[in-house]
Write a structure and sequence with these properties.
GO molecular function, one term: metal ion binding
CATH architecture of the largest domain: Alpha-Beta Complex
CATH superfamily of the largest domain: Sulfite Reductase Hemoprotein,Domain 2
Helix content: 10-25%
Largest sheet: 5 strands, antiparallel
Order of helices and strands: EEEHEEHHEHEEEEHHHEEEHEEEHEEEE
Shape: globular
Keywords: 4Fe-4S, Heme, Iron, Iron-sulfur, Metal-binding, Oxidoreductase
Strand order of the largest sheet: 1-2-5-4-13
CATH class of the largest domain: Alpha Beta
Oligomer: single chain
Distance between the termini: 20 Å
Structural class: alpha+beta
Number of helices: 9
Strand content: 15-25%
Domain Nitrite/Sulfite reductase ferredoxin-like: 20-85
Number of domains: 3
Protein name: Precorrin-3B synthase
Number of strands: 20
């Protein structure tokens, strides 16, 4: 049997603003914009900070957050102060570390999703202490858009239009009213902790060994919505960023040239420029949904991450044009760029790659020790 990839150092938490993570090029500081939205001025300000304190790029993460990389430890307090001045972080580090909230980007001020966001934000300090990797999805607009997003507690819409709370890993959820939604969430969170969920780390993993109460599994969510792709959108344009990497100079120019008013962050490493003019084509962003790079996922890899022994993104770019499958090139078996199963996953180990088909980076590979220059279409 083939051996799995060497186990990397798993932190059990994600880098935040108050609690950054040390990588090969300095600190990684994650910014979770409230409601996954930045005003044009906030976006320009974040570009300025990435250039002043980081490496001049922003990373758009799989959870629709932004990261500044390459921050010196001595500069971290000054960066925090600037982020707070922009209104992009919580003053309470404990709240900021648990504010992993996905929203359907179609939310509107005062709608159900917006109201649930406010209620959830207020409730975060009173929830049981859970692993910081855990998160929440407010998939309550048209429904089904966030199905592939990383979340453990999911507010969704049923086929009859009702609100449900579903535990990730279950096919069905629990009908709730808006007024009782947060109390139901607290019940589920307390159940998770009391049944040993902290040891599992995530809801779906916990439910592989422990059964959720049957009355919390009665109503399935609405079918998944059609995927959003780059192109014209209501009141703006959706653009993609290859591997989530955004050049700050290009983003600043984009905001200035279009006159966009807001920037909403989306799953799939895309963002929605709202208001203003349609952007002119640019090599820095993905403008068409058929671009194969959108199906390719890759972390920064070596030398930027100490866990990685392989370079990732040039290989992912080359292979993306050769396959119609979702492709993941991971520097190690943590799989940060896509922490779930997909059609083809290449996992770096000791300077070579292991191949996992229809699995996650930590699964047993079908082939091991593939040299980067020998991997081809036949392996996919």
């Amino acid at each position: 049997m083939n051996a799995p990839a060497t186990s990397p150092s798993v932190k059990g938490w994600c880098p935040g603003a108050h609690r950054p993570m040390l990588s090969g090029d300095g600190l990684v500081v994650r910014v979770r914009p409230f409601r996954a939205e930045l005003s044009a001025d906030q976006a320009r300000g974040l570009c300025d900070l990435a250039e002043r304190f980081g490496n001049g790029t922003l990373d758009l993460t799989s959870r629709a957050n932004l990261q500044i990389r390459g921050v010196a430890e001595a500069d971290h307090p000054a960066l925090l102060a600037e982020l707070e001045a922009l209104g992009l972080i919580d003053q309470d580090p404990a709240v900021e570390g648990h504010r992993n909230i996905l929203l359907d980007p179609n939310w509107a001020t005062g709608d159900l999703t917006d109201r649930l966001y406010d209620a959830l934000l207020s409730a975060l300090p009173s929830l049981p202490d859970m692993p910081e990797k855990m998160g929440f999805a407010l998939d309550t607009c048209r429904g089904g858009y966030l199905r592939d997003g990383s979340a453990d507690f999911r507010f969704e819409i049923s086929d009859d239009g009702g609100l449900i709370l579903r535990a990730d890993g279950c096919d069905a959820g629990r009908p709730v009213t808006e007024a009782a939604a947060i109390d139901a969430l607290k019940d589920m969170a307390e159940w998770f902790v009391s049944t040993g969920g902290r040891d599992a780390g995530r809801m779906a993993r916990h439910l592989k060994t422990v059964s959720l109460p049957a009355e919390w599994q009665t109503t399935p969510p609405r079918s998944a919505a059609t995927d959003v792709s780059p192109g014209a959108a209501p009141n703006g344009t959706v653009l993609g960023a290859a591997f989530g990497k955004i050049d700050t100079t290009a983003l600043r120019d984009l905001l200035n040239d279009t006159g966009a008013e807001q920037m909403r962050l989306m799953l799939g490493r895309m963002f929605w420029l709202r208001g203003g003019r349609a952007p002119a084509p640019s090599q820095h962003f993905v403008f068409e949904g058929g671009d194969p790079i959108l199906k390719a996922h890759a972390c920064p890899g070596a030398p930027f991450c100490p866990q990685a022994t392989v370079e990732t993104r040039s290989l992912a770019t080359w292979l993306a044009a050769q396959t119609d499958h979702v492709l993941h090139v991971s520097g190690c078996s943590k799989g940060c760029a896509l922490p779930r199963a997909c059609a083809v996953t290449l996992v770096g180990r000791d300077g070579a790659f292991d191949l996992v088909k229809n699995g996650a980076p930590w699964d047993i590979p079908s082939q091991t020790g593939l040299a980067p220059d020998t991997i081809s279409l036949k392996d996919l």
